[in-house]
Write a structure and sequence with these properties.
The chain has eleven helices and two strands, in the order αααββαααααααα. The protein is mostly helical and about 230 residues long.
Length: about 230
Amino acid sequence: MSEAAYVGRGVHRTAVEGLALRIFDGTYDEGDTLELPALMAELGVSQTVLREAVKVLTAKGLLDARQKRGTFVRPRADWNLLDSDVLRWKLAAGAPPDFFADVLELRRAIEPAAASLAAEHRTEEDLAALDGSLTAMRSAGADPVLAVRADTAFHSALLTASHNRFFVQLRRVIVPALVARGGHGGSGGQAGPVPAHAEVVRSVREGDGDGAYMAVLELLDLPAGARWAGA
């Protein structure tokens, strides 16, 4: 279980994960009413445990309950994709290409602005983290796992260096999407993108907010086959 997983323990976690799986694999589609007695038997849990699982998924925007209708799956547009568990379940179920296109649009809106703020607010610790991720990129070679790890470290460090608490929180969306995209044909250890990442760090180090903004846009506009893990 990843550290982003639902933090409940034992049967409670089993119930939440099992019910979420049934929603994301299409066993229960949006608008479907849950068959609670059948779910209790399938999951091997008590009514109390299942009720708690329903509460968790209701809070995450997946479920709702109405008198005479019962508990049902909400429309996908209502699912809270900014929730780390919901995003994890979505990615594990196999997100379509347009999902990653939406993530890229989000990144184009957020990361250049974060880089501009980083140029203004970065600390020596922030610069060390960015430099460390560049070193890891250069050392990754053709190892796709190390390449993805270095890339996610870079983008996480960049968001952190903005010192904007909301941008920092978006690591929870961007990093899992980068990891998932890296597992779907990411380019691995190509050397070409390293200078593009290095240009971002140079602008941040020099306090050049406009330069950092444009450098991130250019990085995100690299052809997919030339990016580190889709970056």
